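tool_call predict_complex ligand=adenosine-5'-diphosphate
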Amino acid sequence: MTPERFSKLLLMSLAVPTLLVFVMASVVAFEVGQLRDALGWVDHTDTVIAETRAELRRIVDAETGLRGFLVTGREEFLESQRESSGTAARFAKLEAMVADNPPQRQRLDEIRGKFENWIGYSKQMVQLREGAGNYSDFELNMTGKRMMDEIRAGFATVIDVEQALRDTRLERATHIDKDFKISLAGLSLLLATTLVLFSRYQLRNLALQYGSALKTAEEKAAEERERKQWFLTLLRSVGDAVIATNANGRITFMNPAAEAATGWSEAAAKQQRLESVFRTVKADTRERLENPVDRVRRLNAVAGPLDHRLLIRRDESEIHVDDCGAPIRDDDGKIIGFILIFRDVTRQYELERTLRTSEKLALAGRITASVAHEIHNPLDTVGNLLHMILIDGGSEHIAEYAELATQQLQRVHQVTLSMLNLYRESHAPVTVKLAEVVNSALALLEMQVRSKEAQVTCRFTEGSSVEGFPGELRQVFTNLIHNALDAIPQGGTIAIDCMSGGTQKQVNITITDNGCGIAEQDIPRLFQPLFTTKGESGTGLGLWVSKGIVEKHGGTIDVETKNTPGESWTRFHVVLPRQFPSLVSTAQALAN
Ligand code: ADP
Ligand code: MG
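tool_result ok
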């Protein structure tokens, strides 16, 4: 179920009952209003009746008071008559109360008129009594009685009409009350039924949606489990060693290859810190190396190996390893663990070492031959000159012979010096002037250059230098020039160009020859060890070693060549950074 659908359902579940309750409350409020209205009218009628009766009582009292006065002649009896002085105001009030009923009003008006007449009559009677008149005259008294009878009858009618009104109004109120109760019961029943039906519908709907959501989640979980299983099986069966850790660097998984490489079983290694199981030291200095997980965490990226590492196994034996670490991230990109993949490269390392040794031996052999030749020629000349000095004793040429012999010995000195420089390799990179390195390589190859009658041209940008190991770089140029010499025909040309790169952070060196070129199918294999087209006379190690040296200096080497009939040439490009790559910069390069 989508969140929108769920909110809609929830909204409906609240809105519908609220609406129903609101409707019911409105109906109830209306009915209560009606009932209150009706009861108000009943009350009003009651008040009118009570007030009318009170007024009647006062008038009757006034009449009684008049009689008492007439009989006794005492003033006290007239008190009630005096009290009835507010009658006008009370009549006005009564009339206002029945303002909605004009006939009643009319009746009250008439009664008031009659009462006012009676008051007149009463005053006349009082005067008669006080003035010793004939106040007991029968006719006079009968007039008073008739007046009072009419007033009483008027009041009786008013009260009767009000009484009848009251009954009608009360009946209406009772009706309303009954209707109210019935409609309340009906509405409650309707509300309850609607709510039950609606809630049932909503719940069923919700259950249905929930069920389908649950099913989807279960399917997803099963898929996830299957994928995890598949992934674990895959990891267990790969040839490379794989170790996974949680975000804190504690081991959570190890495949059989990792068990074999480290000597730890997965069960024993689980929850151990990675550095206790994957203990590595730098192969040459044996210094402890940064834990791969820490390095990946620091670089926040996949990190390959920086140094040649030795892994110390659980039984303290050692193997050479090549490793690569990567962070494991969740969907939000947060690191939730690390994975370390490594392989035992001991055999490969041993093989490379053997190959390097043989390349060095071959190179040493070649150098020895050139050196022997270089030394042999001047020494031969020196021998001849000494012989001539001995024969020619006292001749004027002696000084000239001695000078020549000194020159030849200087040449010998130069050759032996460059040999010494080749082996006196420093441990740290130094500033290497490329012109010097190329010239010393050419000096070593002078014999071959001469015998091929090669035209060698060198062009150097002023002060082209890089940081590195001079002996190793010399070996690169010796190999490349040597190959060029092998490729060119007699009298061929070799051009060595050395230019500062555009960014000024690197130097480009090209060695171009007009030799036989390289067949297209050989190009991919050029830099592989032992690939040679020279049979017995080649080792197939020169380019491979050169590539290794160039890459150690943080540079690149590649080739461009043509070998179509009529046009053939080869150009090797070597690009060297001016700065020898430090650990930090290599790490940065890897992180990028
Ligand atoms: P080697 O010189 O002992 O054969 P290298 O590794 O130096 O071994 O060279 C490998 C091969 O590359 C050579 O055998 C040759 O076929 C080819 N090669 C290298 N440089 C040149 C070049 N300048 N011109 C033509 N072929 C070349
Ligand atoms: Mg070679």
